[in-house]
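Kindly draft a polypeptide, keeping tokens residue-aligned:

***
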Amino acid sequence: MINPAGVRHQIEGNVIQSTSRVLKEQVEHTETGSSVPQEWGAYPIITFPELPKIDIVMLEQQSEPPLGSGESASIPSAAAIVNAIYDATGVRFREIPLTPERVLEGLEGRNRKFARRRAARRKRSIGAIIAGLTGALGFGAVAIPLNAPLAPITRPNPSMYSQETIERGAQLAALGACSVCHTAPGGQALAGGFALETPFGKVMTTNITPDVETGIGSWSYPAFARAMRDGIHRDGYNLYPAFPYPSFAKTSEADMQALYAYLMAQPAVSRKNTPSELTFPFNLRPLMAGWNLLFNRNQTLTIDPAQSEDWNRGQYLVEGLGHCGACHTPRNLMGAEKTGAAHLAGGVAEGWDAPALTSLAKSPVPWTKDALVTYLRTGASANHGVAAGPMAPVIEQLKALPDSDINAMATYLASLNPDISEAEAGEKRESIISATSSANHPALTAPARLFDGACAMCHEPGRGPVLFNEGPPLGLSTKLHLDNPDNFLRTVMHGVEHTVHSAMPGFGNSLSDEQIADLANYARARFAPDKTPWTNVAKKVQHLRHAE
């Protein structure tokens, strides 16, 4: 555009005016039913404290010359706000203004209706609840040993540990991504408060700084090791297995002591732990003792003499403190990682699909050791894509590990995948790029043209000058080959933050739900033609949009 700043101001003013009228304007009608007009200065305007953040994104049409623009079209604020309130409350409002009083009145009516329904359901289900409670408590009474509290100690002086031990502990904390889970957004490192969403409710991570009152400063090493291996708090109660102590249990004594030394050497932060919010009966901590009896038995790793030293080291890192299975392994109905062929066969983490790390992976080019080394070190692989979602901060933490450990992890993980040489992987890559090129897929439809305008420059080799932050060819993206479109949709909507490799802007504010769904369906059909088409993509886009 010739006048982009002017257009931005027009759109912002349009949003402010139309939103103000939806929320505040009292419309009066004459006897004949027509609305009573108001003077221009009488229209209500929301105040600065009420003003929402307005994001305006403009996409250049590079195939067209710069043009001027007149006034922006009126924005359908009423429909958007009414739909948003309906999504949040379940109440459909059909009159404006949507004042707080009117919304509260609608909520009260909805609550009365729901209360009548709940009362009817409560009568039918009370017998089932009593039976379930009896069974759960009976199981707990049989399975629960009493865990003795361990006496508090004076916080250890960090000077009692060598600098080498503390530095080794820092690497181990990075391997375990301790700060990723134990740091709230915008909070202080390791002070807890991060919400882990599980099928059983919300688990709040705890303060693991050496603060004596609110952290682990008064914990002895035996208390720390017991929590890490057995999932038992210093006070004797059971921890929830969202804390992956079945993996941490495989840690050697020397490494466990180094990790303890590192944590005790960190700054103490006073922050009380926020209670978790789990549904009944999973909020009963004593039942976790029975869970441990069933699922926390294998606490050691066996050295495989038939494998190399690198392979065994990689197994120790991946299966132990690295706890890769916590995200990349499906779980059973009790929330425990499945075993056997299901191990590392793909799971879910924070709403993202965590792809399989074995031969069950959906990626069109199998993982090689070199590709894994590059990915674990930089967060990007030319044959697979870029780390996004919960994996991105994990890659950031892995930067602290020495190259020897990254190499060992890659050696172990590569052994779980089909044996393919780098040359064979390269040939498969070029074959996929050729088959999915624009030469074979001319832009004849609206979704194809949308892809050409928004995606092709970065994600289709040969379409333009080589960019510094050129993205991976979409035909190689694991996200497009998964059974679920959520990872691809999240990436399109929110983008990818800057990594060593690249950054990608999100299109959630510039493309409509329908356009995002069309783009996803087109990309799946073109770049993953051997896969079954995704279904209900439009509904998934709406769900992800409203879950933000």
